[in-house]
Amino acid sequence: EPEVTQTPSHQVTQMGQEVILRCVPISNHLYFYWYRQILGQKVEFLVSFYNNEISEKSEIFDDQFSVERPDGSNFTLKIRSTKLEDSAMYFCASNLMSGGSKTQYFGPGTRLLVL
Amino acid sequence: GESVGLHLPTLSVQEGDNSIINCAYSNSASDYFIWYKQESGKGPQFIIDIRSNMDKRQGQRVTVLLNKTVKHLSLQIAATQPGDSAVYFCAEPRWRTSGSRLTFGEGTQLTVNP
To answer: How far is the C-alpha of A10 from the C-alpha of A113, rounded, in Å?
Structure first.
């Protein structure tokens, strides 16, 4: 069964450093998303991406964040200058939106720790 | 603002019992709901979804019931097993033509006792 994959599974970085989180969405999906989950809290939407551009972003997704689909398979989230409060699980998700299905499929996540 | 949320933060059941996890929503125009299961340290895993033109949908050992009158949905798990222990979220997609953002509830931690 096709799956969303993410790398790395864990990332530790120093405050102020740049990090890039990588995702490979399900191959025939057209819509891509990033969410984050701070420890003990609910999953929060960051950004959605379709047709090579951001379609929606939340108030969390400020100028420090960017997304890119550099090739036909990868989808990345970059945090330019990490802050302590960026420590969280980051999940990538994708969906196809055919047949009216709005279900998104999630990857296993990247646990980011900013020191 | 609009919200989707769960009634109970925790639920503890005996193995073999049926579990019922509840969720309420505020937007009467909501037309689609998704239940996810999240095990510790993992990503949300799709369980079942339901459109608003349905009252009930069944999957393998799971049933989702939707009551649009009171804006409530529930996830029923039959013959609960230890592997069902996880946090369960209901989620609602807010659809635009270029994608949809999911709004998650707080989650219910289901613990299955052997």
So the answer is: 8
Q: Mean pLDDT for chain B? A: 89
Closest in A49, A51, A104 to B102, CB measured? A104
Compare B112 and A99 and report the one with higher pLDDT: B112
3-state SS of chain A is CCCCEEECCEEEECCCCCEEEEEECCCCCCEEEEEEECCCCCCEEEEEEECCEEEEECCCCCCCEEEECCCCCCEEEEECCCCHHHCEEEEEEEECCHHHCCCCEECCCEEEEEC
Identify whether the C-beta of residue A7 lies closer than 8 Å to the C-beta of residue A109.
no
Kindly report, residue by residue over A51-75, the tens digit of the pLDDT. Answer: 899 999 999 999 999 999 988 789 9
Closest Cα in chain A, distance from residue B42 (Å): 5
A51 touches B99 (CB < 8 A):
no
CB spacing of A102 vs B46 below 8 angstroms? no
* Closest-CA residue to A56 (of A73, A34, A85, A75): A34
Q: Which of A53, A48, A41 is nearest to A85 (CA)?
A: A41
Instruction: Report CB contact under 8 Å: A48, B99.
Output: yes
